[in-house]
Amino acid sequence: MTILQPGKNQTTLIPSDEFDKLKGDLVSELKPAVSVIRAITSNSTRLTEKEREVVVRSLEQVERILFDLENQL
User: How far is the C-alpha of 68 from the C-alpha of 71, rounded, in Å?
Assistant: First the structure.
């Protein structure tokens, strides 16, 4: 896998198995965070209904991405 480094004209090659481990780490770190954000959002009295809907839609997109990544492992 080739990783592009932002702001640099350089790429880094990462072995496939290491890239899969990075994806697995990302999924395992983000899944609990999404759950916490969802809980905070649903219990928040400071958000309007429209703001809450935006957060929920965004979290659903993140969950779909995480699901796809998890299925690639």
Answer: 5
